[in-house]
Recover the amino acids of this structure.
């Protein structure tokens, strides 16, 4: 049998399609992307090496400043809010019996829906004359311009988009935490009650430490997701008004496929990639802990 | 005897509130999509006076959502079949066959999960443009397939690793080749895994917007999210038609979700646990 499982030819045949696809569609393009980011490349002519000029241009690009600020805001907001809200929902849902599945499925529903469609939906809800403002009008309140206001450091549209993103994706974190919490053995809680823990205390001293590995996982998923974030913003504001709600992904799309500055867009892509790697590295270093025996 | 608990009551009130927040927007769109455009402003929250399907037929034909649904379906179905095939083959090699670099190969695929699609879009686009793979559905299938592989491989490898050794041993004694073992024994036994990964792949690709938008400019080849985003734009002023378009775009996933919510949720959890 050992010989059968060590069959070199079979291994190559089984691995080849996936491996080749991965190499040619993912890893080689990444290297190319890094190379393009050092080039002047407009699509029609061949790329010309210009060194760090694209990165220098990044420093002075005003829209990029907004994009970077919004992306970082988004990253922090979604990591924190998803952690708190996801944990809270998971904690109360694991504590009830009746209707647990129903509520779980309702909250998870938007995760599987197209964020392009949901973005449009929320765009209408927050549009000047429809949705929420219609509702507010009934009480004679004049609603703000939810998606066009530009006052403040983090402008109102960004908060709106951030909350919509929380609404859409919190189900995912909730599910992950619920799976982890329901894996904790009952006897640990019983032991903690015997030792005089209240419910809140046993959550703090039993549940929290035991789900810490999952916090790291869910958080890095959120972090990557929020850096990649494109669909909702593209359909809710398209980066407007005046680039104020741009994030890195929408800026990359604009520079690359509206103005065809491939080299410059690649530099934004490299920035995005580095941020993804740094953030996941950071989370894995500081949040992750070894798995306890449960 | 059950004790009435104030905390429980609070929890249920909160959960009902959450359910309203989650479902109300969907109901609102659904309701409005049956109205005429004028009714949206005169009676925004009432039920439609004379429910009309016209909005749907307009979005389906003139808005080209019909053809887009078909395109999406073709792309997703091909991607699904291929990713199940290639993914489980690689997963079998990693999880079951014995070779030095199997761990390394797994890491290679898992790193791919962290890479955002934006970073490879430009080189892929320029290369595909050269071999006229842009504006074709095959050109979409290739990157979709690649980005679906890591999660498929991860989940399926778990399934293959968990299979009892005796199974393969006995097949081996009966003289089966390694290919027969894979196709006739292991693959049928991993049906659940295939189903779960298949659902996830299908949903992820069905909703994908960015790549489809970049790669396809021909109206007849656009996928659902792209056609939807184009139809529902700042230049359209007929709200009820746009709302009908949104409903057309999300109804298929809602139906799939209602039918398979437990499997979808399980798959997600299994796929994410690796970190």
């Amino acid at each position: 049998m050992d010989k059968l499982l060590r069959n070199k030819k079979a291994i190559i045949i089984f691995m080849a399609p996936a491996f080749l696809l991965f190499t040619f569609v993912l890893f080689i393009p990444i290297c190319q992307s890094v190379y393009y980011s050092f080039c002047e490349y407009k699509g029609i002519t061949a790329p010309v090496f210009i060194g760090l000029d694209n990165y220098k241009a990044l420093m002075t690009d005003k829209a990029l400043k907004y994009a970077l600020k919004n992306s970082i805001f988004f990253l922090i907001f979604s990591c924190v809010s998803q952690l708190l809200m996801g944990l809270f929902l998971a904690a109360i849902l694991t504590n009830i019996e009746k209707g647990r599945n129903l509520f779980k499925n309702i909250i998870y529903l938007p995760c599987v829906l197209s964020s392009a469609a949901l973005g449009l939906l929320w765009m209408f809800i927050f549009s000047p004359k429809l949705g929420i403002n219609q509702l507010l009008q009934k009480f004679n309140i004049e609603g703000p311009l939810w998606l066009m206001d530009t006052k403040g450091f983090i402008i109102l549209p960004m908060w709106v988009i951030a909350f919509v993103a929380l609404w859409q994706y919190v189900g995912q974190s909730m599910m992950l935490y619920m799976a982890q919490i329901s894996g904790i053995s009952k006897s640990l809680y019983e032991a903690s009650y015997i030792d005089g823990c209240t419910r809140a205390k046993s959550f703090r001293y039993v549940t929290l430490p035991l789900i810490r590995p999952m916090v790291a996982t869910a958080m890095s998923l959120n972090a990557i997701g929020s850096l990649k974030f494109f669909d909702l913003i593209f359909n809710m504001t398209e980066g407007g008004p005046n680039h104020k709600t741009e994030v890195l992904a929408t800026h990359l799309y604009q520079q690359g496929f509206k103005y065809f500055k491939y080299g410059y867009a690649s530099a934004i892509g490299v920035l995005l990639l580095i941020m993804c790697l740094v953030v996941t590295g950071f989370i894995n270093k500081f949040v992750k802990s070894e798995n306890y025996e449960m | 005897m059950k004790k009435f608990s104030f905390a429980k009551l609070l929890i249920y009130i909160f959960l009902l509130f959450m359910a309203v927040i989650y479902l109300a927007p969907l109901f609102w769109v659904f309701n409005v999509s049956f109205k005429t455009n004028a009714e949206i402003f005169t009676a925004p929250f009432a039920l439609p006076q004379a429910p009309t399907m016209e909005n749907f037929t307009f979005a389906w034909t003139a808005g080209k959502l019909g053809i887009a649904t078909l395109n999406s379906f073709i792309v997703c179905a091909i991607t699904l079949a291929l990713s199940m095939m290639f993914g489980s083959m690689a997963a079998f090699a990693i999880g079951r066959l014995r070779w030095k670099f199997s761990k390394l190969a797994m890491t290679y695929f898992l790193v791919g999960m962290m890479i955002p699609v934006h970073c490879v879009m430009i080189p892929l686009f320029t290369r595909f443009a050269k071999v006229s793979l842009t504006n074709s559905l095959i050109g979409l299938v290739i990157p979709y397939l690649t980005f679906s592989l890591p999660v498929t491989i991860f989940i399926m490898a778990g399934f293959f690793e968990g299979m009892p050794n005796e199974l393969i041993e006995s097949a081996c004694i009966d003289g089966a080749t390694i290919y027969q073992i894979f196709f006739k024994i292991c693959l049928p036994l991993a049906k659940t895994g295939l189903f779960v990964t298949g659902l996830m792949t299908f949903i992820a690709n069905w909703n994908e917007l960015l790549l489809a938008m970049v790669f396809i400019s021909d109206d007849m080849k656009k996928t659902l999210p792209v056609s939807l985003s184009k139809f529902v734009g700042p230049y359209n002023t007929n709200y009820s038609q746009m709302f009908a378009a949104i409903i057309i775009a999300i109804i298929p996933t809602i139906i799939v979700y209602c039918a398979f919510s437990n499997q979808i949720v399980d798959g997600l959890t299994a796929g994410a646990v690796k970190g």
About this structure: The first strand of chain A starts at residue 39 and ends at 40.
